[in-house]
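Example 3.2
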Amino acid sequence: MKERENMNILVLGGTRFFGKKLVELCIENGHDVTILTRGQSGNPFGTAVKQLIVDRDNHDALENALAHTTWDIVYDNICYSPNEAHTICELLKGKTKKLVFTSTLSTYEVDGKMKKEEDFDPYHYQILMGDREEFSYGEGKRQAEAVLFKEASFPVVAVRFPIVMGEHDYTRRLHFHVERILHDQPISLPNIDAQMSYITDEEAAEFLYFVGVTPIEGPYNATASGAISLKELLALIEEESGKRAKISLVGGDEESQSPYGVPADWYMTNAKAEKAGFTFSQLHEWLPKLVKTLVKQLQ
């Protein structure tokens, strides 16, 4: 893959998990990187990046921060609503050559069918403006995609990730299952046979970088190849820990509810992204290794 040297890149949401890995990747490739944050997570990159400290919900402050800037690529990992998307379209007009928006598998219905990009069409989706608290996570991302693709004056890529996994996942969703099994605590879930898609934080960062420096636009699914059921995932943890999972398919208190609990298969194809030139990992090659690492850490 050939890209231009020394691109000027802005990352919103670049201080933790796959956003942090994206920034590290951009630095490694010799680009000039600026992170825009509220300042609450500090700056883990030191002098390797510039930092704009601003709350994106403060329109005037964001406008001032972006007033005299131009970018080759802007990555927005923290846009969750149509209002936020509209503001970005407005403030980046004439200031960027491309926007890469982190979207989600949650834009698709949980209906047991493998999801491809055309299963959600943001170009013809009815926009309802509002802030993030007015929508579910999935609907907020759908609305944001719709606004970006209809209003942006620059090319947009929406990257639809499934659940992102990694040792440093601040949501600790895989950690939850490991810890519950290690401590003989029950796990409640609606369908143990439901298959899901996953991707690592490292691969998520690599794909975000890829779509930024590649002349493509539109929605793209980004997931490791393959899917796995919760039953199979829990079996991996059981095998590595030597303990048995306590599963409840009905009831259960709020603390025992699996964050991976879905009523039906919920996974996506990555064929469009691979056709564009990106080669994804095989889920079944790295997931057992990640489970082994977490079991060792949490025992």
